[in-house]
Specification:
The protein is an alpha+beta fold. Helices cover about 35% and strands about 30% of the residues. The protein is globular. The termini are far apart.
Length: about 140
């Protein structure tokens, strides 16, 4: 990732970085059998805390049009939703630097498309904000 121009922070088995102003993580998946330092796959993950909720058809539209990445909503707590963008990358048992670079380039392009899509979609149809979220936001701004 350094060779691709990314700053990388290592925290245990997770790499943290950012592209286009969006922070993301690279999470290691299945270890290569017999190795504690090599992995068969990784997942690139970007998380965005949102206020309100996205309509399911909007999320499904993104997923239909983008081959490599997918988005979905998670709810880590009752009053919080997180929009997740992720990309799984299969590395195999002996990935080359070129293979890794291709996955990083795909991720970067996907994030750029995601940011543009969010800007467009949020202007056209903002997330639905529940009364509870709106009250919480007003209290936070007071």
């Amino acid at each position: 990732m350094h060779a691709a121009g990314y700053r990388v922070e290592v925290q245990g088995s997770v790499l943290r970085s950012a592209t286009g102003g969006l922070p993301f993580e690279v999470r290691f998946g299945n270890p290569v059998p017999g190795s504690s330092e090599a992995y068969l796959d990784v997942t690139f993950v970007a998380l965005l805390v949102i206020q309100g909720s996205f309509q399911q058809p909007l999320l499904n539209g993104w997923n239909k049009r983008h081959r490599f990445g997918r988005i979905f909503l998670e709810q880590p707590s009752p009053n919080q939703e997180v929009l997740v963008l992720c990309l799984d990358a299969v590395l195999g048992t002996n990935p080359t630097a070129q293979t890794l670079r291709v996955h990083i380039d795909i991720w970067d392009a996907l994030v750029q498309q995601f940011i543009a899509w969010l800007n467009t979609e949020l202007r056209q149809s903002p997330p639905v904000v529940s009364e509870t979220a709106a009250v919480d936001q007003m209290a936070a701004n007071a």
